[in-house]
Design goal:
By secondary structure, this protein is mainly alpha-helical. Helices cover 79% and strands 0% of the residues.
């Protein structure tokens, strides 16, 4: 026979809040680390602009190779610097499926912008077309990155359950 103990509702609510608040902070930190911070985003955008503007000016083949090598090298340096500063690593949330989907969606948007503008700027001189393509591609990157990161991080916060199920459960 189980003995029931009286439960103080106010104390139970305070206990629940003590547990939930640190968990919400973990999710907030994950969202911040998923975005990489402003320095990472702006550094990546600046590198992307220089790379796309340079390649868009139709350099010789060795120039394209030089641009690619410099771009990959500098991007790797940015990633290494960011990963060393990253304070948080949750083993079960390292790369949720939504994060890969968001990465792919932004890549498709930026790539589509580059292809579309390449077609639209065929008649322009490469000295004008390259920076124009780079500016539009970086603008699409910056405008789509924030919503994509928030959507990807939301799957971690919700524990993977769809938002409709969460709302119905409340």
């Amino acid at each position: 026979m189980a003995v029931s103990m009286p439960v103080d509702a106010e104390q139970a609510w305070q206990d629940l809040q003590r547990i939930r608040v640190p968990q919400e902070r973990v999710y907030d930190e994950f969202e911040r680390s998923a975005s990489g911070g402003r320095r990472m985003v702006h550094g990546t955008a600046a590198l992307m602009w220089v790379f796309l503007a340079g390649v868009g000016m139709d350099p010789p083949q060795w120039g394209v190779g030089l641009f690619v090598a410099a771009y990959v090298g500098l991007l790797s340096v940015l990633v290494v610097m960011h990963s060393r500063r990253n304070r948080m690593q949750l083993h079960h949330t390292r790369c949720p499926g939504r994060m890969w989907a968001a990465f792919g969606a932004v890549a498709v948007l930026v790539g589509g912008t580059i292809v579309l503008l390449d077609h639209l700027t065929e008649r322009l001189e490469p000295i004008c077309a390259g920076p124009l393509q780079a500016t539009a591609a970086v603008a699409v990157y910056l405008l789509s990155l924030g919503p994509a990161n928030r959507w990807a991080a939301e799957s971690v916060r919700s524990g993977g359950e769809p938002a409709a199920e969460r709302e119905a459960g409340r």
